[in-house]
Amino acid sequence: MTSRLIFRDEHIEIRVPTELEAPLHFEAIQASVKEISAWESWCDTGYSLEDSRTYLIESYVKRQRGLEYRFCLFDVASGKIIGSIALNRIVQEYKTANIGYWIRSDFTGRSLAVTAVQAISRFAFQELGLTRLEIVALAKNQRSRRVAEKSGAFDEGCHRNRLYYQGTPEDAWVYSLIPGDLPQKLV
């Protein structure tokens, strides 16, 4: 059984959300739809409460099957969902996975994504036995690239046509993390 809580301090908690928290998830996305949709094709103005509910149900099923591990960042003071981080594209044969993340617009600039990347990396290495994680960010997504760099990830360069975004192949920067890359303490 894997941990449902992967980080907690006096400000944030990073844990598996439940289906009952769909309204909180939906509200966080609505508060950030403009910023998230600039980089994520699943997010647009038509995103609904039912989409959040479906996402959380699918998260449970995928976690049970070991296909994906999705967590949300919760603000301890308000209880709001303030972001999300996930391990996806897990390949057990090679002990690899991708990391994806977003932070609610009114909570950016606080190194929350950096903390989340480091927390999910520890979870991946220690609990899942993975040995390589990748962060793949669209070349134009400076903020996401900066998170990867601040997290201690190794810059492997810009890969041509690495992502397919809104019907178009796009260049993307690839960053990798292996167990020795993580700092002793979380940021």
TrEMBL record:
The keyword Acetylation does not apply. The keyword Acyltransferase applies. GO terms for cellular component: cytoplasm. Its EC number is 2.3.-.-. Residues 12-180 form the N-acetyltransferase domain. Keywords: Acyltransferase, Transferase. One of its GO terms (molecular function) is protein-N-terminal-alanine acetyltransferase activity. It comes from the Bacteria. This is GNAT family N-acetyltransferase. It comes from Rouxiella sp. WC2420.
